[in-house]
Write a structure and sequence with these properties.
Length: 639
């Protein structure tokens, strides 16, 4: 068996001094190529069954096409594919009632490696392959799929009878590439591929193994597939193992929510309903269909790995092909069926192609459109699921600026009062008292908390002044708000313990700065360079507050997130922290009295007040907590 590839192109060009041209053909020695096919054609041996069943489906598709063109007559039988396992005979058979082959076709398409009968059929009856292949339903492309049978077989037989009425034939080939062709007495139109499974591949004679492969690769093939293993009750009604009309082939307006959920349960084995689905039915300029799901997670880290199943004319190709769906949408599950994707020989990987990137961009756009539609038209339901999708949407926004720009009107902020607003709504509410040009140019600050329990004192002070406080308590939020500040002009995010200027009464407190009070607090902190600032706050309950500038705090979070500092370290360095002394607090007045009357009591009170400010700012370490408890016991005993 060999292939010819004659070189007919003239080898000399304009101005060439060559006087003689030599041409030849590249040949392939079967003794050399068959061992390569047997071992290396596909990385996963299971694919062989997908390829043989796909060839059977193509044979039926060709027959149906010829009948529709009036070039063949249908016999009234239902089209189907039969897969038969016979452990006794050590054979695995795939049988179809498709177009069949004449002897000339058998010799041309089977006995020549990499000559695709599928492409020739498309060119003859559908137009050129590039124009018609996407709509033809034909799966084959490379002319190599049949030879995958030799990956598991020591011998392969073909029994075929053409729709033309030509005599039936039997083709037998060993795994060294030598073959014979005999006459056959078969009377049924179609083709049977009989694989004599090698001893070392006996696993492919197990019914469970064969069913597993068919369920994975052929669950949605366009023709009914029946599996016979000899283990079933022959009297029982036989049912196809596949679904010939998967949900993604329907139009979105023809599908119900129940159907979407049922399909999700079946394909992904998840008993929980998804949060929502996105049905893609693209005809122009792309030709692909699919359904994507946002899964419902029980916990933040529950099954973070999504699964996007890629199909090619209803034949499963691969999981999670990152070229089609960006990695930042890793949590999605779904199916994409795109017959125009440029796959490699094994159909396991995509070739680099501009078309692929355009398909990927279209999918991302559909996801963004869905989020926008939910936010605008079904706000109540959108708010219910926001907690489940927030981290994923924010991660995608951080990863892709175009994604961020598309969804920016659909990004919600969960507030401490359990309500939700979009970022734009927060901005509009903050600017409601501004007018004209001032509103356009004004800078808006979004106050947020990363730990509502720990930062409760700060939150209560801001909410008392009418400010809405957002909850941004996930590690991704530090990156997200940094990106958001670049997308939303005039917007900045400030954590409630980073800047309390909005809580100040507005009076100038410089004259109230007291060096003795500064010394007391620096001694209490054990830091003679502690930044101390005197401010009169509208709320007089808190005697002091600790502030860490937003930029310093974000850098601190970044360092912790990437393990540049240990997670057990208690809070940021004091060198970056400012102790704000509330001059409107009665405790400050009392401290002023003690500093001149009883220094020892003043130091004790300053130390206790400082520990209180630490507790409101961050968790105390072991030594700090022990000291605070000791001081508390002293106070109790002194009452």
């Amino acid at each position: 068996m060999s292939t010819k590839n004659p070189i007919n192109e003239k080898m000399t060009g304009e101005g060439s001094t060559e006087k003689h041209m030599r041409a030849g053909g590249i040949s392939v020695e079967t003794d050399h190529i068959f061992p390569i096919i047997k071992k290396w054609l596909y990385s996963d041996k299971d694919i062989f069954l997908r390829e043989i069943v796909s060839n059977a489906a193509d044979a039926i598709t060709k027959m149906k096409r010829l009948c529709s063109l009036g070039q063949a007559e249908a016999d009234g039988e239902d089209y189907k594919i039969l897969v038969r396992v016979d452990k006794t005979a050590k054979t695995l058979v795939v049988e179809d009632n498709g177009i069949g082959m004449t002897e000339d076709e058998l010799t041309r398409y089977i006995c020549q490696i990499a000559l695709s009968g599928a492409l020739e059929f498309i060119e003859k009856y559908e137009g050129t392959p590039t124009e018609g292949s996407a709509d033809s339903g034909i799966i084959g492309h490379f002319g190599l799929g049949f030879y995958s049978a030799f990956m598991v077989s020591e011998k392969v037989e073909i029994i075929t009878k053409s729709y033309t009425g030509a005599p039936a034939l039997r083709w037998v080939c060993s795994d060294n590439g030598s073959y014979e062709i005999y006459d056959s007495d078969s009377e049924s139109r179609g083709t049977s591929v009989i694989m004599h499974i090698a001893d070392e591949e006996a696993a492919y004679l197990e019914a469970a193994k064969v069913r597993e492969i068919l369920d994975k690769y052929c669950a949605f093939m366009p023709y009914e597939i029946y599996l016979e293993t000899g283990e079933e009750d022959e009297k029982a009604e036989k049912k196809p193992i596949n679904t010939t009309s998967p949900l993604w082939l329907k139009r979105p307006n023809e599908c119900t929510e129940e159907e979407y959920n049922e399909f999700y349960h079946k394909v992904f084995g998840d008993f929980r309903d998804p949060l929502f689905s996105i049905h893609i039915n693209a005809d122009y300029p792309f030709n692909f269909k699919g359904i994507l799901y946002f899964p419902r997670l029980r916990t933040e880290f529950d099954n973070l790995e999504g699964r996007i199943k890629l199909y090619y004319n209803q034949v499963f190709v691969a999981d999670n092909v990152k070229e089609v769906v960006p990695e930042y949408l890793f949590m999605l599950r779904g199916v994409i069926d795109c017959p125009e994707l440029p796959l490699n020989v094994s159909r396991s990987y995509l070739q680099n192609n501009v078309y692929v990137s355009k398909v990927s961009a279209h999918i991302v756009k559909k996801i963004c459109d869905k989020l926008g539609s939910l936010c605008q038209n079904n706000r109540a339901e959108y708010e219910k699921i926001w907690g489940d999708i927030r981290v994923f949407v924010e991660f995608a926004s951080v990863s892709d600026r175009k994604f961020f720009d598309r969804v920016k009107d659909s990004l919600l902020l969960g507030l401490t009062d359990k309500t939700f607003v979009t970022i734009n709504e927060y901005r509009e509410a903050a600017l409601k008292d501004a007018a004209g040009d001032d509103k356009e140019k004004a800078e808006v600050t979004v106050y947020y908390t990363s730990d509502p329990a720990q930062q409760s004192q700060y939150i209560s002070m801001f909410t008392a002044q009418g400010y809405k406080v957002a909850v941004l308590d996930h590690p991704i939020d530090t990156q997200f708000i940094t990106s958001a500040e670049r997308v939303y002009e005039g917007l900045k995010f400030v954590r409630v313990d980073a800047d309390i200027s909005a809580l100040a009464s507005g009076a100038d407190e410089k004259e109230k700065e007291n060096k003795e009070i500064v010394k007391l607090f620096r001694k209490a902190a054990g830091d003679d360079k502690l930044n101390v600032k005197f401010v009169s706050l509208k709320d007089n309950r808190a005697p002091t507050l600790l502030n860490l500038p937003e930029d310093k705090r974000r850098m601190d979070d970044f360092m912790k997130q990437y393990s540049f500092v240990t997670k057990t370290e208690a809070g940021p360095a004091l060198a970056d922290t400012t102790l704000v002394v509330n001059t409107s607090s009665p405790a400050y007045t009392r401290l002023l009295e003690l500093v001149s009357a009883d220094v020892e009591k003043a130091e004790f009170l300053a130390g206790y007040i400082y520990k209180l400010s630490l507790m409101a700012h961050r968790r105390l370490d072991g030594e700090e907590l022990s000291a605070f408890l000791s001081d508390s016991y002293d106070i109790i005993c002194g009452i």
